[in-house]
Amino acid sequence: MDKKEMEVSKTMGTFLTLSLTALSLGFLFPVALVLINSFKSKLFISSAPFQIPNGDTYAGFGNYTEGIRKTGFFQAFGRSLFITVASVAIIILFTSMTAWFITRVKSMFTSLLYYVFVFAMIVPFQMVMFTMSKTANDLYLNSMYGLVLLYLGFGAGQAVFLFCGFVKAIPVEIEEAAMIDGCTPLQTYLHVVFPMLKPTAVTVAILNSMWIWNDYLLPSLILPQEKGTIPMVIQNLKGGYGSIDMGAMMAMLVLAILPIVVFYLSCQKYIIKGVAAGAVKG
Q1: What is the C-alpha to C-alpha distance for residues 86 and 92, in angstroms, rounded to an integer?
Q2: C-alpha–C-alpha distance, residues 139 and 150, integer Å
Q3: With b meaning 16 or more CB within 10 Å and e meaning fewer, what string describes 64-81?
Q4: DSSP 135-163
Q5: Mean pLDDT of the chain
Q6: Mutual orientation of helices 246-267 and 73-104 as an angle, nearest 10°?
Q7: Alpha-carbon distance values, 5 to 12, 18, 34, 131, 181 (Å)
Q8: How far apart, in whole angstroms, are the C-alpha atoms of residue 262 and residue 282?
Q9: Under a CB-based contact definition with an 8 Å cutoff, are residues 205 and 282 in contact?
Q10: How far apart are CA 79 and CA 226, in angstroms?
């Protein structure tokens, strides 16, 4: 590479860095706006939304205490945490086993099963939400435990797709050696295959945690209002005739996004690794 090509490459790299930095700031701006307004008196949120809180507009942590009191935030937090953790756990366990079976057992049935899961990824939720809601009520799934099963169904397509790609990259000889040593198929999966699926499992956990934690539509269709998740109780801050306690809502939004942001930042290094590992052509 000559000097001119190096200068062009450096210029392109600088331009790309500046462009991505500007794009990142654009995505972060709404989050920063919510954080700033969560410390303002609600009278000033609409009139001066971009102003930094000062002596006149600063409300301290009053919005947070008021929002927690009005929404029952900690109870909703516990429900959201249980639903998210339980749903992600069974999605990872069952879909990884399904992907292993589909990949290792070559038959018309497993091929059809794989394409059914892939097809499920592209079906909009709005197409099935009314029939799903009716079926869930008929089967008494209108509870936190039933919601976990529903999330397994809706999250299985993407998870199976990612796990299948990774399982194809695992040499089958490793599993054959384990079976020769006396492992049953279940032991082979638990002690040999599943530990090797960690990068994709973490990726599936991150993607589904962000989706389930922030989801409003499915819980609102299944759960009673008094047993709602965090997005549902935040929505309750809207009063009659269009009145909204903006200060409390901004504060609760900050508390709602904080756990999932921390979880994402602590695990983000696995996302690209897991997606790349699951993109094996087989």
Answers
A1: 10
A2: 12
A3: bebbbebbebeebbebbe
A4: HHHHTT--SHHHHHHHHHHHHHHHHHHHH
A5: 86
A6: 30
A7: 10, 20, 44, 60, 57
A8: 35
A9: no
A10: 11
166 token code pair: 């990774």
Q: Which residues pair with 40 in a beta bridge?
A: 58
Rounded distance, CA 54 to CA 31, Å?
A: 19
Helices (H), the chain: 3-37, 42-47, 62-71, 73-104, 108-122, 125-138, 144-167, 172-180, 185-188, 194-196, 198-214, 217-222, 230-235, 246-267, 269-277
The per-residue pLDDT for 86 is 96
Return the SS3 of 223.
coil
Q: With cut-offs at 50, 70 and 90, classify the pLDDT of residue 147.
A: very high
Instruction: Tally Cβ neighbours within 10 Å of residue 109.
Output: 10
CA distances for 255 relative to 50, 185, 195, angstroms: 20, 44, 34
Q: What is the CA radius of gyration of the chain?
A: 24
174-211 tens-digit pLDDT? 888 888 888 888 888 988 899 888 888 988 998 899 99
Give the long-range contacts of residues 158-161, CB within 8 A, separation 24 or more: 158/121, 158/204, 158/207, 159/91, 159/92, 159/95, 159/96, 159/99, 159/204, 159/208, 160/95, 160/98, 160/99, 160/102, 160/114, 160/117, 161/117, 161/118, 161/121, 161/278
pLDDT of residue 273: 61
Q: Are 184 and 234 in contact (CB under 8 A)?
A: no
Residues whose CB is less than 8 angstroms from the CB of residue 44 and which lie 6 or more positions away in sequence, other chains included: 51, 56, 57
CA dihedral angle for residue 182, residue 188, residue 192, residue 195, rounded to 10 degrees:
-150
Query: How wide is the angle at C-alpha 196 spanned by C-alphas 193 and 201, nearest 5°?
Result: 100
Name residue, tokens 């090797």. Answer: 196
